[in-house]
Amino acid sequence: MRRVIAQGTFDILHPGHVHYLSDAASLGDELHVIIARGENVTHKPKPILDDRQRRDMVAALDVVDEAHLGHAEDIFVPIEKIDPDVIVLGYDQHHDESGIKAALDARGIDCEVTRATPREQRHDDELLSTGRIIDRIVERRC
């Protein structure tokens, strides 16, 4: 059985998330998704939805076998428990593939690290990133 991990914040699910998770699922037999805890999100605005709601939304997607909350102090703890064959990063996530691979190697976790493909925008107003959704909400409030 080939286990795949995808990870992210997944605040306000959108077509880009669905594509990412579907792409990741296609690389194995079992897709585990790690949901970042809100307290650990530092590279963008804090999530609108709380941790459990975001986990429950991701878990409801057919392509997801299990959704897990990330560890509050050590992002590698759930990865060690899941023992994946591959970690799939979102095509636009800020993570450095070689840095992640080095950290995995240092912990004795032998798995591939790759990137998902981008999703082509299908219509002009389709939102494929949470950042663009938040921008749209702010525009409508002003």
Main traits of this protein?
single chain, alpha/beta, 5-stranded parallel sheet, FAD, 142 residues, ATP binding, Rossmann fold
Layout of secondary structure:
Elements: E1 3-8, H1 15-25, E2 30-35, H2 51-59, E3 66-69, H3 77-82, E4 86-89, H4 97-106, E5 112-115, H5 130-141
Parallel strand pairs: 1-2, 1-4, 2-3, 4-5
Give, in spatial order, the strands making up the sheet with the most strands: 3-2-1-4-5
CATH homologous superfamily title:
HUPs
**Number of DSSP strand runs:** 5
The structural domain count equals 1
Assembly state: single chain
Q: Order of SSEs, N→C?
A: EHEHEHEHEH
Please report the number of helical segments.
Answer: 5
Largest sheet: 5 strands, parallel
Termini gap: 50 Å
Q: What percentage of amino acids are in beta strands?
A: 15-25%
Main structural class: alpha/beta
pLDDT < 50 stretches: none
CATH architecture: 3-Layer(aba) Sandwich
Rg result = 15 Å
Annotated CATH topology: Rossmann fold
Mean pLDDT: 89
CATH hierarchy, class = Alpha Beta
Protein name: FAD synthase
GO molecular function, one term: FMN adenylyltransferase activity
Function: Catalyzes the transfer of the AMP portion of ATP to flavin mononucleotide (FMN) to produce flavin adenine dinucleotide (FAD) coenzyme.
Cofactor: a divalent metal cation
